[in-house]
Design brief:
Layout lengths: L2 H11 L4 H8 L3 H8 L10 H8 L3 H5 L3 H32 L5 H23 L5 H4 L2 H12 L4 H8 L3 H15 L6 H17 L1
Length: about 200
């Protein structure tokens, strides 16, 4: 459930009109209407007063279940992984430009550290994101083709020779199984990072 839908549900449960909620938050009723219809989202500064008014946690308001929270934690780890890969590549490029007597030893050590870090991440994330177990060949192919076509649904469906709605169903299945919505750019990047890291390093 999106935050706007949750706000509407809570507002009705508490017998509040859009105008009353708007007055409490010092915003216009039009703003509340836009939240509830999904046109826009409330400012982050309004999360605290909303949770206080409805007597719920921020996680409940934002609709975060355990899978969502685990995904957010994983995404943070993946961002760190991407940073480490970037630093490692830069380090290797700098190493290549030096006149080290035995650069191959430093190269091997860098790759070893990178691989150890990736394995450490997967030992933890595999507890709930078993990519090669939960995704069948059909879903793997859909994800791979979706990446190759720059997250374009229509073009991917054409390349896979399936109806657009069929592809959307497969993407939704991937989201249900892994917690990643590949139609969201940041989530797609993180999914591909661990997908490729596991394929080539683990």
């Amino acid at each position: 459930m999106k935050i706007g839908e949750k706000i509407k549900e809570l507002r009705i449960e508490n017998n509040l009109t859009q105008e009353q909620l708007a007055d409490y938050l010092f915003v216009s009723y039009q703003a509340v209407s836009k939240w509830e219809t999904g046109v826009s989202n409330p400012d982050l500064s309004l999360i605290a007063p909303l949770t206080k008014l409805f007597r719920i946690s921020a996680d409940e308001l934002l609709g975060l279940n355990e899978k969502d929270k685990r995904r957010i934690e994983l995404e943070e780890k993946i961002r760190n992984l991407r940073g480490m890969i970037f630093e490692s590549v830069n380090g290797l490029l700098e190493l290549n430009e030096t006149e080290a007597e035995e650069p191959h030893i430093e190269f091997a050590e860098t790759i070893k550290r990178l691989r150890e870090m990736i394995i450490e991440i997967f030992e933890e994330t595999d507890k709930y994101l078993l990519f090669y177990n939960v995704l069948d060949i059909e879903l793997h192919s859909a994800a791979q083709c979706f990446f190759e076509n720059n997250l374009n649904v229509s073009e991917t469906a054409r390349k896979l020779f399936v109806h657009r709605n069929t592809l959307i169903y497969r993407l939704e299945r991937i989201r249900t199984l892994t917690g990643f919505d590949l139609r969201e750019f940041d989530q797609a990047v993180n999914f591909k990072t661990i997908f490729m890291a596991k394929k080539h390093f683990v």
